[in-house]
């Protein structure tokens, strides 16, 4: 369990991958994206993140933490997270998954 800026994050992702497999895990990440997305814009915005964060147990997320999350994951500079950016950010938040990402990539390719 790690604490950064007051947010406590426990890395359950490796256990999820083990249980669901790479494909199932990626589907779960996509489901998480759908919980946070702005339905009109098709991306996670600051407003949609703040409005829907309680669905993921992050109801105490500060505005600053939400902005930092968006900034950290925003690869194309549009100020929001598309599905690929969200999934990439979630994987980057899991040190153990980053270490075993080659295995996940191979498994995802084989199952594709």
TrEMBL record:
<protein>
    <submittedName>
        <fullName>Calcium-binding EF-hand family protein</fullName>
    </submittedName>
</protein>
<dbReference type="GO" id="GO:0005509">
    <property type="term" value="F:calcium ion binding"/>
</dbReference>
<dbReference type="Pfam" id="PF13833">
    <property type="entry name" value="EF-hand_8"/>
</dbReference>
<dbReference type="InterPro" id="IPR018247">
    <property type="entry name" value="EF_Hand_1_Ca_BS"/>
</dbReference>
<feature type="domain" description="EF-hand">
    <location>
        <begin position="61"/>
        <end position="96"/>
    </location>
</feature>
<dbReference type="InterPro" id="IPR011992">
    <property type="entry name" value="EF-hand-dom_pair"/>
</dbReference>
<dbReference type="InterPro" id="IPR002048">
    <property type="entry name" value="EF_hand_dom"/>
</dbReference>
<keyword id="KW-0106">Calcium</keyword>
<dbReference type="InterPro" id="IPR044205">
    <property type="entry name" value="KIC/PBP1/KRP1"/>
</dbReference>
């Amino acid at each position: 369990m790690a604490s950064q800026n007051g947010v406590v994050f426990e890395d359950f992702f490796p256990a999820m991958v083990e249980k669901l497999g790479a494909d199932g895990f990626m589907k779960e990440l996509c489901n998480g994206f759908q919980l946070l997305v702005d339905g009109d814009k098709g991306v996670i915005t600051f407003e949609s993140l703040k409005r829907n964060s309680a669905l993921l147990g992050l109801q105490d997320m500060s505005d600053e933490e939400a902005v930092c999350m968006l900034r950290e994951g925003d690869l194309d500079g549009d100020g929001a997270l598309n599905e690929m950016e969200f999934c990439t950010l979630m994987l980057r938040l899991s040190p153990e998954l980053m270490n075993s990402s080659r295995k996940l990539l191979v498994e995802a390719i084989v199952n594709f």
